[in-house]
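job 3f2a | input accepted
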Amino acid sequence: MSRIVLGVGASHTTLMNTRWHEVEHLSRAHRFRDALGEARSRLEGESPDLVLIIGSNHFRGIGLDLMPAFTIGVGDVIAAGEHGTPAGPQHSDPAAALVLCERLIESGLDVAFSAELLIDHGISHAIQYLVPPNVPVVPIVVNCFAPPLPTPARTCAFGLALGSAACRLPGNRRVGVIGTGGLSHALPFPDWAAPDSEDDRFLVDSWRHGKADWAANEHRRRQIILSAPPRINTDFDEEFLAAVASGEHMALAQRLGNRDLVASAGNGGNEIRTWLAMCAAVDAAAGEVLAYSAMPEWLTGMAVAAFTPASAAPTTRPARRSRPPDHP
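job 3f2a | predicted structure (328 res):
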C-alpha cells in the first residue's frame, strides 16, 4: 500500500516571477517566498516518490470547447511556460495517473483525462517552487474559472476519493499532494455566456480554443488582467486559513456557496477549491500556516501552509523545521 506523507497549500502568481524586483524591499513578499522554500524543504524531507498537483487552468490548456470539472493528465504533460514559469515536457508518471483515474471512476466520480495535457502556471508554479528535483508529478486540473463550477462540497468529495485512490497505488509509494491557487483575488474575467465589452468578447473568444491559440492572444490578455485593481479580502483569507489549519475543510466546504464565495473572495477565490481537495485527499486533521501576505502588487492574497495526514504517527514525522524569520 502507498501512503500520503504531506500536503501543501500554496497560492500562485506569475507576477512573482515578472514583478519580483518591484516588491523585493517588502518583508511580506519575502515571507511568502521563504515559506515556499520551507514547504519545499518539508516535502523533500518526506522523500516522496510522486507528487499530485491539484491546480487550475487559466484557459491556456483547457478551453470552452470542452470544460470538465476535473481533469487528470495521464500522459504527456506540457507546460506553457508563460511569464517565467517552466516550459515544455514535465516529469510525469502516466501509469500512476491512469491508475488514479481508474480508481476514481470506480468510486463513482466521473473525471476527464488527457494524454497530452497543456498546463499553465496553475500547475507549473508548483513544479517551479515546490516539487523536489526529479520527482514525477500527476497534474489534476479543477475548473475554477468557467461556471458552472463544481461546488466546494463536490470538490472535497473528489479530494477524498483521490486520497483513497492514491493510497491504493501499487509499489508502496510515498505521495505528496499540493493544492495551488487563491486566495482572494479578482480577475477581469467576464461571464463567458454573456460577454459585454469588446475586451470581454476578446477574452471569451480566446477561451473557446485556449490550447491552440493561447500564445497568440497572450499579450492583449495580459494587459487586460494587469489593468485590474487589486481586490484582496484579508478577513476572508485569514478565516479560510484558520478553518483549514483546524481540520475544518469539510465543514467549510459545506457552508460555502459558489456565489457567496465569489462575493467574498472574488472570482480568483474560486481557486480555494484546490486547497479543499488537497486537504480532503490528505485527510488533514490540522495544518500549519507558514505565511500569509496580502500582496496587492500581485493582485492576490498569498499563503503557504503544510498539512500532515491524520494517520501519520508522531514517530514517523521528520523533525519540525523552524519557521523562517520575517525580513526587516
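job 3f2a | The chain has twelve helices and nine strands.
job 3f2a | closed
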